[in-house]
Amino acid sequence: MVKINFGCGQEKLEGWINVDLDASYRPEVVADLSANMPFQTACAGLMYSEDFIVQLDLDSAYLFLRECHRVLKPGGIIRLLTPDLEKLTRAYLYEPEWLVATWKQFVGIPLKTQSACEVFNLGIRLAGQFHYDRKTLTGILNECGFHAKEVNYRQSEAPELRGLDLRRPDESISMYFDCYRF
Ligand SMILES: C[S@@+](CC[C@H](N)C(=O)[O-])C[C@H]1O[C@@H](n2cnc3c(N)ncnc32)[C@H](O)[C@@H]1O
């Protein structure tokens, strides 16, 4: 079965076709995923993408998901991880110390003020172009032909999608979806 990992960066998956715009990561396929993909229609059974869709503006994200729908076989699944705008906002409001500590441990870009305010600003500015909450993301996925099921870290009905997630819930603001192609 063909399995494709989009926006792999240096985290390439063995046995998968890893795709990235940046050739320095030496992915199997170098491609700009804000444009049509160099894959045949209905050629893939599974897809994975962690912390990539946030890098796209909204129009490009729609195109990317429509292309995923074209390339995925009916019944196929794309597992999508992306930062959760609501979790970031709640952390800023109610758990500022956790937010600052997590930034220091896992992002590491120095802070001038050591404040959750600064982490919130940097997080939005540096992490990508469009941050989703679950209602917005699942709505877009539905428009693009997917039923999005929120799942737990490293859990999936599909054995090959288990155990892939890099970002743990206690160490990140990720949300986790298995998206079933209609
Ligand atoms: C934050 S990294 C995520 C890497 C890895 N998936 C992870 O979870 O650590 C985002 C990746 O998306 C890639 N990327 C950004 N825009 C892209 C585009 N338009 N087409 C393809 N890849 C892109 C970047 O080169 C980078 O490797």
Order of helices and strands: EEEEHEHHHHEE
Task: Give me the secondary-structure category.
Answer: alpha/beta
Tertiary shape: globular
Q: Helical percent range?
A: 25-40%
Find the CATH superfamily of the largest domain: Vaccinia Virus protein VP39
- Reading off the top of the CATH hierarchy, the class of the largest domain is best stated as Alpha Beta
Task: Give a brief rundown of this model.
The chain is an alpha/beta fold. The chain has 2 domains: 3-83 and 132-181, Vaccinia Virus protein VP39 (Rossmann fold, 3-Layer(aba) Sandwich); 85-128, no CATH class.
Give keywords.
5 helices; Rossmann fold; single chain; SAM-dependent_MTases_sf; binds S-adenosylmethionine; 23% strand; 2 domains; alpha/beta; 182 residues
Architecture overview:
By secondary structure, the protein is an alpha/beta fold. It has two domains: 3-83 and 132-181, Vaccinia Virus protein VP39 (Rossmann fold, 3-Layer(aba) Sandwich), CATH 3.40.50; 85-128, no CATH class. 32% of the residues lie in helices and 23% in strands. It is built from five helices and seven strands, in the order E-E-E-E-H-E-H-H-H-H-E-E. The chain has helices spanning 58-71, 85-94, 96-107, 116-127, 134-143, and strands at residues 3-6, 17-20, 29-30, 44-50, 72-83, 146-150, 174-181. Strands 3-2-1-4-5-7-6 form a seven-stranded mixed beta sheet. Helix 2 packs across helix 3 and helix 2 (85-94) packs antiparallel against helix 4. The longest helix has 14 residues, at 58-71. It starts with a strand and ends with a strand. 32% of the residues are buried. Residues 7-9, 11, 20-22, 32-34, 50-52, 55, 166 line the site of S-adenosylmethionine. Keywords: Methyltransferase, Transferase.
